[in-house]
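note to self: dont lose this again. the chain is below, predicted strucutre after it. 592 aa total, dont forget to put it in the shared folder this time
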Amino acid sequence: KIMVFLHSHGISTTKSVRIYKTYGDQSIEKVSSNPYILARDIPGIGFVSADIIAAHLGIAANSKERIKSALEYALWEATNNGHCAMPEDKLIEDTAAILNQTRAKITSNLKTKTNVDELVSPSMIASVLLEMINKGELTEELIENENLIFLPALRNAEISIVSRIRKLISTPSILENINIANAIQWAEQKINISLSPSQRNALETILKHKFSILTGGPGVGKTTLINAFLKIIHAKHLKCILCAPTGRAAKRMSETTNTEAKTIHRLLEFQPAIGGFSRNESRPLDCEAIIIDEVSMVDVMLMSKLLAAVPDHAKVLLVGDVDQLPSVGPGSVLKDLINSNKLPVAKLLEIFRQASDSTIITAAHQINSGKFPGQYQKSQTSYNKISDFYFIERNTPEEIIDEISTLIAGRLTSKFGFDPFKDIQVITPMNRGKLGTIELNKRIQEIINPDAPDKESVTKFGWTYRKGDKVIQNENNYEKNVFNGDIGIIQKIDQTEQLVYVSYDENTITYEYNELDELSPAYAITVHKAQGSEFPAVIIPIATQHFLLLQRNLLYTAITRGKKLVLIIGQKRAIAIAVKNSTTTKRYSGLL
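---
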């Protein structure tokens, strides 16, 4: 009876099962009285799906529950663009558009319309918004003379971050009695590097303060300072934990420090069954110090959970490059903490000799300061091993794709000895379009892993996976011990058992066919996916077709993914637009 009812209102079997698991025998009663609870309670059902059911049930367009759900939906949609809040007038405007456009589409298919397609006025929305604020269902804050509306969970996360930092700062440091000058001199001997005056000042700041931030671009010596700090901490027989937001970033941190680093989720012992962390304020981490790398990638929700689990006595060091892309999730934690001017920040600017020999690093710093990389004004057609950064001018998407194909098909392998699967990574600003990941992956797959009569393959979720394909994990899967951003190679496809075996760095993971939506082809990935990772050779297509994404921080982040070779292929005008465009979209937040 329940399944028939749900199917009659356009709900799929999968979603119907989820609804029944959540509400049991009360499913019909709950959905009939307020279908909008589905958007709050059931994964995979948002406001639009709930509104279709509501329209079938004859629920009025100006129903209070409908307006409440649309306000929450508008705020959640804003988090997809990195916002923790929305200005009140913008929220009302966006909610009106959602309410009226969504219902207009739905009711065009309904036989009976009655009052289900009436327009909802801004004054109605403002009235419901005020009621939600008064009931604590939404939070209102006046920040920089702007009335911002928050989902309580996000505002609480911001408040939690601030209160935890205050608590950590006010608790005595484990290194209070240390002679900092002697410690720095001793650490220089241990790491066998003579620090520059700016590096010594930065290390002094880190050692002196309980909570500090280390920031700077590539080649300025952030890793050197982390290693010096670790030597001092370990000499005092203190436990220091290292972590980063992604598996690849944690692996890179482990390699550069010779110390185990974990993902933040693994460190906090994420429990899929409860959808939360078992490490928290009541069960804090066992450490005297913690270093968090790639903090620009950490959003407010994750930072609040992490700081909650740090013991009061622990020393905290945040490390990151504030000029890279901000987190995919809401907030600009690193940028906001630095801009608050309330915390000690050690900013490294000097590029060191070994790094200055790298044209990748020189070019990255030129781009970051708004300059077109000097020696790359002219397109380069020849390759030699003296340089590690090239710009190859091509003017149409087709020419750019052809050049990428030529390089991957052999030129990079023969000239530089790169493995097309393990070493070469194409990084592009977007998923869609001729130069997006979807089209590039199809083209590159046909070049280096074409179909063959005896090659195992399976077509699922719009992609044909073949044995030998390079793939990327799109979400954290704790049961399989594989994480968002991990890149592997398909070793075997068992068509009888319907299983796919993917080899990652240290282990082989088995996927059932219906789990393949966790994977995507990884010959070409977005800049956001690449952040926190490094690759021996990086190819970056750039064209004016990417206009909305031609931003300085996006190009800078892409270039700094390359270790040995970076090739930018495309239009000089597109690079110039990106280099000049330092305006990043303002993220609404209330942190500090």
